Amino acid sequence: MEQLNIDLSNLIPRVRYLTALNRYLDKPIIKVLIGMRRVGKSSIIKLLMGQLLKKGIPVSNILYINKESLEYDEIQNYRDLYKYALRYFKGINGKRYIFVDEVQEIEQWEKAIVSFLSEEIGDIVISGSNSRLLSSDLATLLSGRYVEIPVYPLTFKEFLIFRRNIPDIEENFKNFIKYGGLPGIHLLPFEDDIVFDYLNSVLNTILYKDIITKFKIRDAALFDKIVRYLFDNIGNITTAKKIADYFKSQRVKISVDTVLNYIKYIESGILINKVCQYDIKGKKYLEFYDKIYLNDIGLRNGLIGYKERDINGLLENIVYNELRVRGYKVYVGKLNGLEVDFVAQKQKEIKYFQVCYLLATEKSMRREFGNLEKIRDNYEKIVISMDKFFIEEKSGIRHKYLLDFLRERE
Length: 410
What we know:
alpha/beta; five-stranded parallel sheet; 2 domains; 14 strands; about 20% strand
C-alpha cells in the first residue's frame, strides 16, 4: 500500500459508489466519477484500490495518478500521460488498472484515455470536478465508451454514518442543515468558525482556480456579487433579466449576457443546478424560468451565513439533492398557475413532492396538500415537512417526516 501512497485507515466506505464502480469493473468501458471538489471522489478511488489489493491484485498492476499532487506534475498533457502509463506497466502482466484523479488538469486527456481502452492497456477509472466532464462533453470526447457515475456530497443517511459516535439524530440534522455534506468537515471540531473557514477555502478554490482563472473573469468583485445573489436565492424563480434588473436597482451595471455567462461558469464548477419547470398538464418543459439549488448548502452558509429564516429554501434544497442522489430527474412542477415543488422522474416512475418547514396553519395545509390534490393522475404524491406526527394520508396524499424520508430505504 505504501507504494501507492494511500492511507485507508480513516476512510469510510460509501457503498453506493463502490457498488456502481464494481458493477463495471473489468468491463471494456471507462468509469467516470464526476463531482464537485472535495465531495470524496479520491477517497472512493482509494477504497476501490484497497478492494483490488485485498483480491490479490499486485501493487505493481495498479497505476494511480492524482493531479492534485505535485508528484505527478510532469504529466501535463495526453502524451505525458500515455508515456507515463506505458513506462509504469512495462513488463507487467495480468490485469492492470489505471486510476486518474482530477483528469481535467491534463491537457487533451481524452486522447490518452481512449488509447488506453482501445489498446487494452488497463481497466480505467477517472475522476473530474468540472462540467467539461459532464454528459454532453463526455459523449463527444469518449464516443460512448464510458459510464458516468455522479458523486454527490453526503446524504443525511451518510452524514449519520460519518457521525457514528453521536447518536442524536435531530442534533445531527441541525449540523447537517448548517454545515452540509462535504466529507472533510468530519475531520474537524463542529464549531462554526472552524467548519465555515474550511468550507470557504473549498469554495474559494472552486471560484478562483476553476472559474475566475480558467474563464479569465476580469471583474472578480462583480462575479462574487452574482455568486452571493444565487446562493441567497435558492429555491426562487431566477432569470438572467431578473438578476440584471436587481443589480441595476442597486446601481450596479451588468448585462443579461454577462449574467448568463457567469451562471454558466458557476455551473461549470458543479456548484449549482438549474432546475427547469415542467408543465404537468401539458407534459412539456418550460424554458427560461429556472430555480437554482446548490450541490452543497454548507458552502452557502459559509459564504453568506446560516439564517433560520431561510429554512424553507434549505429544506427544499436538501430534498432536491436527495432525489438526485436516488437517481431521479427533478423538475419544478407548474399546473394552471400553481407550483408543485418537485416532479421526480425515474424511467416510467413519477412522484410529486411538496416541501415545507411546518404544517402549522390551515393555510399551509391548503397550500401544500391543495396543489397536489389538483393533479389528476395516479402517481404518488407526498408532502414532506418537519412535523413528526401527522395524518398518514389525506386525499390519497402521503405525509412524511423529513428525517424519516431522508433515512428510508430506497
